[in-house]
C-alpha cells in the first residue's frame, strides 16, 4: 500500500495554490503563478516552464524565474528542447535527477549559465496531450528533490493544466467577442458613412468625412487619402497627425508603394515600414512605423488609395480584420469620391456655360445697340461733311450729339449692370433701389422694393462681406431680368430683411411661370444657385401660371473692417 508522502501543511498549500491558479484567467499570470508556487513548495532556487510548439516537437516559449535579467542576456538564446529537456518532450512523465551532468542526454550548460546539479521535471498535460513541462533545479537546502517534491509538483502541474485550459478558453472567447465587436463597429461605421455620403455632393466635405471615419474605424494614428491625377497621386485630405503642408503634395504613381496598390487594386499591410515604403512617403512629408494601404476603385477604375499609419493601442499592428473593414469601407468611399468629382465637374461646366452666356449677352448688347448706333452716327457725319449746306451740317451735328448722349447713357447702364458704383459706395439697399427704379422706368413695370438690413437701420457697426452684398444684388438683378424678359410680368415685388444674423430675400412677379427643374438655359438659374451655394445659403423657387417667387436664405456675415474705411 502506497504511503502518503505529503504532510497536511503541504496539502493545504497545494489546495490553496490550485484555487488561486484556477481563479486566474490571464495565461501569463497563470504561468508566473505556477513558477512562484512550485519554487515555494519545493524550495527550488530556479524554475522554468517550457511551452511546446504546435507540433509538440520543441519548445516555443521558455519562461524562467530565479535568474536575473543580466544573466539572461549573457546566456543568450533560450533552449529549444534538446538534451534533458528533449527527453521530457519525447517521454512526458516525471523525471528526477540528483546530478544532471551524469545523465547520458545531458548537453551541459552554455557560458554564463548558473551551475545546476539537482533536477525535477514534470509534464503539463491538457486533455492527455502535452502542453509543456515544468522544470525545477537546485533546492535552497542543497539536498536532492525527494518523493514529496515530485508528488507536489505533479499535483501542481495538474492544477496548472486546468488553469491553463480555462485561460485559453477565456482568451478564445474574449478574442471572438473582440472580433465580433470590431465587426459590428465596422458595419455601423460603414452604414454611417454610407448614409452621410449618400446625401453629400461637395467633394471637400466627402473627403473630410472619409478620412475621419476611416481613421476611427481602424484606430490609426494618421490616415490620408491620395487621389489619382494622371501619373501622380495627390494628398487630398488627412486626419490625425498630418503635417500642415502635406495637403496638395504629390508623388509619382509608378515609383511608390501607394501607386502600386492603386494600380493593382490589392491592399497591402506593412507591419514594419521598410525602406521602400519610407522613401516613397518622403515626398508627402509623412512618416510611419507600420502601414495599411487600401485601394479606392470605382467601376474598375483607380480613384486613389487610403493610407493608415500606426495603429493605436496595445495591439500596435494592423491585422487582417482591419484590412477587411477598411476594404469594405473603401468601396463606399470610392463611390462617394467618384460621385463628388462628377458633381464638381458638372458644376464647373455649368458655371463656365453661365459665364459664356453672360459674355455672349454683353457682346450682343454692344453689337446690336452701341456699335450699330456708332456706325450709323459715322455714316450721318460723313454724309454731312461731304455736303455743302451749312444748315444740313448743323442738323447732322445736333443729331449726332443726341445719339452720343443716348449711347453714353446705354454704356452707363451696361457698366452699372456689370458693377454698380452705388453697391460699393452706399451699400446693397441703395443699389437695389436704383436697380428697381431703372427697371421700372425702362420696361414700364411696377417694381416695389423694400430692403431692411441691420447696417442700413443703424443696428450694426459693419457692413456685410462684399461677396454677400454682391450676391444679394445679383440675385435681385437676375430675378428682375427673368421677370421682364421671360415671364412678361407687370408687377414685381422685392423684399429683403435681416433678422437674427440671417438674411431672407424674396423677389415675386405676376408673369408666366416656368418649370424650375427644367434645364436652366435662358433663365440664369445656374448662376443664382452657384452664388447661393458659395454663400452657404439656401435657394427656393416656386413658379406657376400666376407668377414666380424666388426665395433665398443667407447667413449675414459681416466684413472684417468698419464700413467707414471701405
Keywords:
566 residues, alpha+beta, 6-stranded antiparallel sheet, 14 helices, 49% helix, disordered C terminus
What does this protein structure show overall?
This protein starts with 7 loop residues before the first helix and ends in an 11-residue tail after the last strand. The chain contains 14 helices and 16 strands. Helix content is 49%, strand content 22%. The longest helix is centred in the middle third of the chain and has 67 residues, at 320-386. The chain has a 6-stranded antiparallel β-sheet, sandwiched between helices. A 5-stranded antiparallel β-sheet has the order 2-1-5-4-3, with helices on both faces. Residues 561-566 have low confidence and may be disordered. It is α+β, with helices and mostly antiparallel strands. It has helices spanning 8-23, 27-42, 69-75, 83-90, 147-198, 203-218, 257-264, 275-281, 320-386, 390-418, 421-426, 428-443, 466-485, 525-534; strands spanning 44-52, 59-65, 95-97, 119-126, 129-139, 220-229, 232-240, 250-252, 268-270, 291-298, 301-311, 446-452, 491-499, 502-509, 538-544, 547-555.
Strand order of the largest sheet: 8-7-6-11-10-9
The whole-angstrom Rg is 43 Å
The shape is rod-shaped
What sequence of helices (H) and strands (E) makes up the elements? HHEEHHEEEHHEEEHEHEEHHHHEHEEHEE
Write the layout of secondary structure elements.
Elements: H1 8-23, H2 27-42, E1 44-52, E2 59-65, H3 69-75, H4 83-90, E3 95-97, E4 119-126, E5 129-139, H5 147-198, H6 203-218, E6 220-229, E7 232-240, E8 250-252, H7 257-264, E9 268-270, H8 275-281, E10 291-298, E11 301-311, H9 320-386, H10 390-418, H11 421-426, H12 428-443, E12 446-452, H13 466-485, E13 491-499, E14 502-509, H14 525-534, E15 538-544, E16 547-555
Parallel strand pairs: 12-13
Antiparallel strand pairs: 1-2, 1-5, 3-4, 4-5, 6-7, 6-11, 7-8, 9-10, 10-11, 13-14, 14-16, 15-16
Amino acid at each position: 500500500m502506497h504511503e502518503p508522502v505529503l504532510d497536511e501543511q503541504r496539502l493545504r498549500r497545494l489546495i490553496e495554490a490550485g484555487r488561486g491558479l484556477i481563479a486566474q484567467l490571464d495565461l501569463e499570470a497563470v504561468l508566473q503563478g505556477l513558477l512562484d508556487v512550485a519554487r515555494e513548495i519545493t524550495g527550488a532556487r530556479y524554475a522554468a516552464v517550457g511551452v511546446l510548439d504546435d507540433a509538440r516537437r520543441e519548445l516555443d516559449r521558455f519562461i524562467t524565474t530565479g535568474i536575473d535579467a543580466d544573466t539572461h542576456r549573457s546566456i543568450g538564446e533560450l533552449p529549444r528542447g534538446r538534451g534533458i529537456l528533449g527527453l521530457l518532450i519525447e517521454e512526458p512523465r516525471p523525471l528526477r535527477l540528483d546530478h544532471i551532468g551524469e545523465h547520458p542526454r545531458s548537453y551541459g550548460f552554455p557560458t554564463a549559465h548558473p551551475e545546476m546539479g539537482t533536477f525535477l521535471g514534470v509534464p503539463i498535460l491538457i486533455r492527455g496531450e502535452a502542453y509543456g513541462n515544468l522544470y525545477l533545479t537546485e533546492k535552497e537546502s542543497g539536498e536532492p528533490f525527494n518523493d514529496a517534491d515530485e508528488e507536489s509538483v505533479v499535483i501542481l502541474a495538474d492544477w496548472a493544466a486546468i488553469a491553463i485550459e480555462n485561460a485559453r478558453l477565456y482568451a478564445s472567447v474574449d478574442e471572438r467577442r473582440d472580433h465580433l465587436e470590431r465587426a459590428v463597429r465596422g458595419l455601423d461605421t460603414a452604414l454611417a458613412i454610407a448614409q452621410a455620403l449618400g446625401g453629400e455632393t461637395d467633394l471637400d466635405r466627402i473627403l473630410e468625412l472619409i478620412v475621419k471615419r476611416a481613421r476611427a474605424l481602424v484606430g490609426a494614428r494618421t490616415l490620408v487619402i491620395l487621389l489619382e491625377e494622371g501619373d501622380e497621386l495627390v494628398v487630398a485630405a488627412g486626419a490625425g497627425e498630418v503635417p500642415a503642408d502635406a495637403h496638395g503634395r504629390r508623388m509619382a504613381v509608378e515609383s511608390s508603394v501607394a501607386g502600386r496598390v492603386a494600380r493593382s487594386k490589392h491592399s497591402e499591410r506593412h507591419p514594419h515600414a521598410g525602406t521602400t515604403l519610407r522613401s516613397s512617403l518622403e515626398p508627402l512629408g509623412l512618416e510611419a512605423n507600420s502601414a495599411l494601404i487600401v485601394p479606392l476603385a470605382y467601376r474598375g477604375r483607380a480613384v486613389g488609395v487610403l493610407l493608415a499609419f500606426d495603429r493605436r493601442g496595445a495591439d500596435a499592428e494592423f491585422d487582417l480584420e482591419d484590412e477587411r473593414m477598411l476594404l469594405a469601407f473603401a468601396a463606399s468611399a470610392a463611390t462617394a469620391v467618384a460621385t463628388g468629382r462628377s458633381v464638381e465637374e458638372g458644376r464647373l461646366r455649368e458655371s463656365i456655360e453661365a459665364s459664356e452666356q453672360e459674355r455672349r449677352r454683353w457682346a450682343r448688347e454692344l453689337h446690336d445697340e452701341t456699335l450699330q448706333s456708332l456706325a450709323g452716327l459715322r455714316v450721318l457725319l460723313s454724309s454731312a461733311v461731304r455736303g455743302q449746306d451749312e444748315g444740313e451740317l448743323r442738323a447732322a451735328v445736333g443729331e449726332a450729339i443726341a445719339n452720343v448722349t443716348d449711347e453714353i447713357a446705354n454704356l452707363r447702364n451696361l457698366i452699372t449692370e456689370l458693377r454698380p458704383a452705388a453697391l460699393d459706395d452706399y451699400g446693397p439697399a441703395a443699389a437695389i433701389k436704383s436697380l428697381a427704379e431703372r427697371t421700372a422706368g425702362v420696361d414700364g413695370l411696377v417694381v416695389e422694393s423694400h430692403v431692411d438690413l441691420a447696417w442700413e437701420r443703424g443696428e450694426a457697426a459693419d457692413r456685410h462681406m462684399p461677396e454677400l452684398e454682391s450676391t444679394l444684388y445679383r440675385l435681385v438683378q437676375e430675378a428682375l431680368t427673368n421677370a421682364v424678359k421671360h415671364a412678361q410680368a407687370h408687377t414685381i415685388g422685392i423684399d429683403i430683411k435681416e433678422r437674427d444674423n440671417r438674411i431672407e430675400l424674396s423677389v415675386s412677379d405676376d408673369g408666366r411661370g416656368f418649370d424650375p427643374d427644367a434645364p436652366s438655359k435662358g433663365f440664369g438659374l445656374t448662376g443664382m444657385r452657384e452664388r447661393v451655394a458659395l454663400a452657404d445659403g439656401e435657394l427656393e423657387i416656386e413658379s406657376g401660371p400666376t407668377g414666380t417667387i424666388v426665395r433665398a436664405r443667407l447667413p449675414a456675415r459681416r466684413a472684417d473692417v468698419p464700413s467707414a474705411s471701405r
